Amino acid sequence: MNYGKRIFLWIVLFWIGSAQVFAEPFVQGGPIGSQTSDGYDALGPVVEQPIEFPHNTHAGRMQINCMYCHTYARRSNVSGIPRLDKCMGCHNLIEGVKDRPRIKKLFEYWENKQPIPWKKVHDLPDFVRFNHERHIQRFYFQEKRPVREVCGYCHGDIASMTTARRVKALSMGWCVSCHQKDHLEKAGSTVTSHGPNDCWLCHK
Amino acid sequence: MSLSNLIQNWNSFRTRRPYEGQYDDAPYKWAMVIDLDSCIGCNACTVACYAENNLPVVGKERFGKGQAMHWIRIERYWGEGDTMTSEFPDHGAQYLPMLCQQCEAAPCEPVCPVGATHHSPDGLNTQVYNRCVGSRYCSANCPYKVRYFNWWNYPDRAWPNPLELQLNPDVTVRSKGVMEKCTFCMQRLRAGMDKAKTEGRILADGEVLTACAQACPTSAITFGNLADKKSKVARMWKNQQVDLAKDSQEKSEEGIRGYRILEELNTYPSIVYLERVRNLEA
């Protein structure tokens, strides 16, 4: 092999190697179908919901706290999908939008006494335990960070979407990357600590 | 990482022992006491474990081949003194519930080629199913034989519809090719510990029980937090003069019944058994 060829080979090898090493662990909101280095979709699939629920109106324009509807997030493993009567509690009284097609659909479900078959967007593998309560208690109640930021760590900026879509990798490496960071213990304090790293905390 | 570093790390891993005051600052160290004098061998603990931890029922044939998946089993021993030759040999039967001893220096841990089993901060010997590659080395190295291997894909057949609805959602349903073992009902402990942490306290004694301890009709199984000196389990360990960090226990007087199984192997188990008391002359 002559000298020039060898140099060329090394350059190619280095380029491939560096692309692997320095690649972002995931691309937040990357193009559809793009994959993270660990094989996850950077952006989750579009999930067709029975009603195209506008998060941007509720959480964005109306500034409703996420936990008004996802009420179990602060006291349970799962955040919970609101029951139909949670929707009706407000929409019964909002006369101005009752003629909109999405609201008409909502009332249809209500009159047929049918629950809305919402579909899961952020679905973790069955062998993983994720506790909403601990994260919300720590960052929202203890550190008093804004709710859109706290939920956004894992869910992205839902308040700018209509129906939710997964924008974070939700892979183990991605979870650990945050657990290894130093977080402030309390708002305003200088003491930091990182998240727990025991296997059985998340694996069950 | 240099080679000497690697060897040093490996050695420290292999020679790890519990030491005096190891859990003094830790919030939790889970431990158990099993009173063999109270155990009537009814198998309620085993049934409770099957229900709680999604254990498959393997059937008679596979049971005979030693492929049963019971994380806690009742071992039966015959003959104590002269009872075998007496008129009622059944009186000599004695039972010993055997489950993972959650050893502090667990023989299964250093041999795992992929690090699927390790020691948790609360002193439990963990098993991460989706990391396990099924080498079965841990089971070979376990002196208590309490690790169970999934030889078959039980989710396919062990819970025909609608039985899958009884599965516990907080516990993984294990598939073919992974090792599994008693977890001290980690899902219950984790739920309790998370709740307690939100409320800014540690778990109170008896707040969380393992399924076996909860189901035991004679309260032969006591479960609790050894790091909490006032817990029932810690007081029993102290009364029985068993020390977590010692490999042989010196008793101040005769008749103290507490012992740990195969302690001479330096496994430092987290379960104390109380010897059975029988008056054979009567």
TrEMBL record, chain A:
GO terms for molecular function: electron transfer activity; heme binding; metal ion binding. Gene3D superfamilies: Cytochrome C3. InterPro entries: Cyt_c_III_dom (IPR020942), Multihaem_cyt_sf (IPR036280). Residues 47-105 form the Class III cytochrome C domain. It comes from the Bacteria. Keywords: Electron transport, Heme, Iron, Metal-binding, Transport. This is Class III cytochrome C family protein. It comes from Ferrovum myxofaciens.
